[in-house]
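name: query_chain
kind: protein
chains: 1
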Amino acid sequence: MSYKIAVLGAGSWGTALSVVAAHNNDVTIWNAFDDVLIDIRDNKENSKYLPGVKIENVKVESDIQKAVEGKDIILMVIPSKFFRDVLQQFAPYTKVRSCWEQVVGKSLLSSQRLSSLMLAKQPYSYRKTQIVHGVI
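structure:
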């Protein structure tokens, strides 16, 4: 089975997940900064965060609405301090109860002591959410 996947965040972890997911799925990567997306699109590499790794069969998108609409899975791979803002940006464009959001968190939001999962659940408790979380 093949899925339509949006990866939000094109750092080293988001890029690596995009590369792996693109082997059997339709993958689109979004990032807040266009320079990284241009590098991926034009050079098939993220030389800033994952140099030397070829990125194939991954679409790039700078418009978050276009990145998430119609996707089966959304992988959120962004720094915790931007997590809530990005979640609020894309939430209106996803299908309620039909899209899995996979939260890939790296740390707690220190100012409020909230994990990425807690942030995802707060305003959007109806969503199906899973989390992969490491501790730094």
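note: The longest strand covers residues 100-105.
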